[in-house]
Specification:
- It is built from nine helices and no strands.
- It is mainly alpha-helical.
- The protein has a domain of 121 residues.
- The model has no long low-confidence stretch (mean pLDDT 80).
Length: 181
């Protein structure tokens, strides 16, 4: 026990000797570093971003919108939807024919001779999906608005708004259309 006490005293003495070697000065004051002044151009607020113009929808989105509106014309029991849908087909014949031709070509390039059959199967799934939506009243209301707008706009504007219109008709439709072939 005497050895342990002596060892403690020796450790305490060494600690005090070490502490005596340090200066009792206060810690150094922090140095303030000022940032360099910004050039005047960087002080001005950034201009507001220019909204990106809507691009024309892909043929598959355009054709899917036509398909969704076709189903609505058949299931909604609303003469205005049917009449406007038929008018849309006439007014935008060239746009819709181009979309159909592009879809046929895309399926041919992806699936060869089976392309037409694969496209038909995809369209059947799309039509069945639109026909079996649980909230038919919402779909019919949206279809009525979309097709009424479609008959009043030029084809290039319809092409630019097709993706938004398809999402309005059924929110998951664009992802569904773009995810499967």
């Amino acid at each position: 026990m005497a050895a342990a006490t002596a060892q403690r005293w020796a450790l305490l003495a060494a600690s005090l000797a070490l502490a005596a070697c340090t200066a009792n000065d206060a810690p150094p004051r922090p140095i303030a570093i000022a940032p360099a002044p910004l050039p005047p151009a960087m002080l001005a607020p950034a201009p507001a971003p220019t909204p990106e113009p809507e691009r024309a929808a892909s043929a598959e989105v355009m054709w899917a919108l036509r398909g969704g509106l076709n189903v609505a014309a058949l299931i909604c029991n609303d003469r205005s939807i049917t009449d406007n849908y038929n008018q849309m087909l006439k007014s935008h014949r060239s746009l819709l024919n181009d979309a159909y031709a592009a879809e046929q070509a895309r399926y041919r390039s992806l699936h060869g001779q089976a392309g037409a059959a694969r496209h038909d199967a995809a369209m059947t799934r799309l039509y069945n999906g639109f026909a079996s939506l649980p909230d038919r009243r919402r779909v019919c209301t949206m279809a009525s608005r979309i097709v009424a707008d479609a008959v009043t706009m030029p084809s290039d504007m319809l092409a630019r708004s097709a993706r938004r219109a398809l999402s309005t008709l059924e929110p998951g439709a664009v992802q569904l259309v773009l995810s499967g072939n």
